Amino acid sequence: MDDDDYQRFICIEPANTGTDAITLEPGAGHILGMTFQSLPI
After folding, report:
1. Angle formed at CA 37 by CA 4 and CA 12, multiple of 5 degrees
2. 3-state DSSP percent of the chain in helix, strand and coil, to 5
3. How many helices (H) and strands (E) does the chain have?
4. Is 0.70 topped by the overall pTM?
5. Is residue 14 within 8 Å of 32, Cβ to Cβ?
6. What CA–CA distance (Å, rounded) separates 32 from 15?
7. What is the rounded distance in angstroms from the CA atom of residue 15 to the CA atom of residue 18?
8. In 3D, which of 33, 38, 30 has the Cα closest to residue 14?
9. Cα R_g (the chain), whole angstroms
10. What is the DSSP letter of 2?
11. Can you say whether the dihedral through the CA atoms of 14, 21, 19, 17 is positive or negative?
12. pLDDT tens track for 1-41
């Protein structure tokens, strides 16, 4: 990224937090996904 790209960039990441947080035992696995929609402004 260029030095000023942050002005035109958005980072969207799923998070495993809050009341829906999942705790895994050693060796266990979990897939976390998300769906988003972009609408015209």
Report:
1. 40
2. 15, 0, 85
3. 0, 0
4. no
5. yes
6. 8
7. 9
8. 33
9. 16
10. -
11. negative
12. 889 988 988 888 888 889 989 999 999 999 988 998 989 98
